[in-house]
Amino acid sequence: MFKPVRGWPSLRKLALRRKRAPMIAARLAPALLILACTACASAQLDEQTARPPAAWSPERAALDAGRYLERIATIDDGPVPLNAVIVSAGDAPQRASEAARAGLPLAGRTVLVKDNIETREWPTTAGSLALAGNMTGRDAPLIARLRAAGGVVLGKTNLSEWANFRSSNSTSGWSAVGGQTGNPHGAQDRGGRNPCGSSSGSGAAVAAGLAWAAIGTETDGSITCPASVNGVVGFKPTMGLVSRTHVVPISASQDTAGPMAASVRDAAMLLSAIAGSDPADPATAEADAHKADFAAGLEGASLAGVRLGVLRERAGEDARLLALFDRALADMRAAGAEIVEVALPTEDDMGRDEFTVLLYEFREGIDAYLAGSPADLPVRSLSDLIAFNAAHPDTELRWFGQDLFEQSLQTTDRAAYLAARDNSKRLAGAEGIDKLLAEHGLSFLIAPTTGPAWLTDLVLGDRYDGSVGAGSIAAVAGYPHLTVPMGHVEGLPVGLSFMGPAWSDQAVLRAGAAYEAVRSAPLAQPQLADSPAR
Is residue 2 part of a domain? Predict the structure, then answer.
């Protein structure tokens, strides 16, 4: 997600949701399969955590996969659809059983995948009708790693179209392919609350218990914002820890995939499966050296003696959010953490240069991706995409335009781009996070991830009134950023962010797990299925 003018957004089911015919057939199969599992109450998931039962077996792996498919049919495709999942796999129970029987690390746990990441079963659309036929028949390397570790690809999730990089006035969670994704929280509000983006479907699906975990992608906020406002854990790893090959790109400098899950441990397990070097992605050259069992040691993780830099100015002015933040600080202080008030330098110059970088890299990256797709596509360049959208105003341009596409097409000055890239990286990294950590002897920086979810508004677009957070600097630097549920404001989740230096992924996850273990604030509970308020 990247919104240079305004932010991210929310819930409401749109009557104009469009699904491709093959996907409709694929989604009907699970509902039929579930008829055989209605007596499986003993193996049903804990709906608060969506974690597998303690006693694990191939049979239970299959039953859990079936339960997730049932929840997709009843919640995501129910009378008031959540629209988080575009397509799902009817054979997931069989594959889950096989993976568990083989003794693989993830043992058949189910994972939903954002629909800008290639999987061999289905088209990869990035939410655009121009890519409705983008059936490449190949797995992105991160998906191949997931399967090799025993993870089951349960389906594809909806997203903000083109990962929120088409219009500066868009509505997060909306795509021409999937319609508007909802937020499982705040259902009492007319119009519904926004799921944020661009990994909208991934965040909403995990919150609604539609899979064990999900994979999102982030350029600037696209994992952490939807995780925060949907009340789940989201982790943006160090850029280069996870391969980007066969992932629809925005920025070679900032893009990364990452896990979204019900707990830090689950996110760490998923990261362990998908991380690693990829010869086709030079940015991952160091990944194998930093790959680890990221879940190891989380149960005993401690904040004792850990110095945390508190970004107070990024906490906003909402008294309710500030009270939550202060409660989180008190919990961590009681657990032995040292709390140090610090301030980031202004991000104005960094943000300006970041925008230049994204405009330039998007044009180069999307041209290369479209030209290299083995599918029979009607578009092979950014120019083609702009023309396609213009030719489909009632479907693609009904709610917002494509000014970012048009600006990107005109951003061709390579010298200016290189200067902007070097400057933004320096301001975010060496003179930003690194400098602040070193000057104060800090391990991590913390701040509220963002404010509560706003109301979805397709006419006016995303509204960031009251939004807070400091995640952009970690995105530009390419450093790890974890958000963990901190509590809620009037039933709307709010996350707490932990940011660290490059390749400190395991340490950041341990800090987040340690906070998760001592958190005292109650968490928001989603309002699902047949809630009449929705």
Answer: no
Q: Over 70: is that where the pLDDT of 221 sits? A: yes
Considering the candidates 3, 10, 114, 172, report the single residue annotated as catalytic: 114
Show Cβ contacts of residue 393 under 8 Å, excluding neighbours closer than 6 positions: none
Answer yes or no: are the C-beta atoms of 354 and 476 closer than 8 Å: yes
Which of 88, 172, 200, 222 does the annotation list as catalytic? 222
Is 443 one of the annotated active-site residues of the chain?
no
Q: Which of 130-134, 182-186, 414-418, 428-432 has the lowest mean pLDDT?
A: 182-186
CATH of the domain at 366: 3.90.1300.10
pLDDT of 137 strictly over 50 = yes
Q: Is residue 12 part of a domain?
A: no
533 domain residue, yes or no: no
Compute the average pLDDT of residues 502-521: 98
For position 144, what pLDDT does the model report? 98
Q: Does residue 114 carry a catalytic annotation?
A: yes
How many domains does the chain fold into? 1
Around Cβ 397, how many Cβ atoms within 10 Å?
16
Three-class SS state of 171: coil
Residue 32 has pLDDT above 90, yes or no: no
Helix (H/G/I), strand (E/B), else coil: 53 = coil
Q: Which amino acid is at 85?
A: V
Does residue 516 lie within any of the structural domains? no
Residues 112/201, Cβ–Cβ less than 8 Å: yes
For residues 221 and 481, give the distance between their C-alpha atoms in angstroms, rounded to a whole number.
9
CA dist 165 and 118 (Å) reads 19
381 tagged catalytic: no
Does the structure show a pLDDT above 60 at 9?
no
- Is the pLDDT at 131 greater than 70? The verdict is yes
Chain centroid, CA 101 distance in Å: 30
What is the SS3 assignment for 83-131?
Answer: CCEEEECCCHHHHHHHHHHCCCCCCCCEEEEECCECECCECCCCCCHHH
Domain that holds residue 377: 21-511
User: DSSP string of 209-274?
Assistant: TSSSEEEEEESSSTTHHHHHHHTSEEEEPPTTSS--TTB--S-TTT-EEEEEESSHHHHHHHHHHH
**Model-level pTM?**
0.90
Q: Out of 128, 170, 198, 253, pick the active-site residue.
A: 198
Taken as a whole, the chain contains a residue count of 534
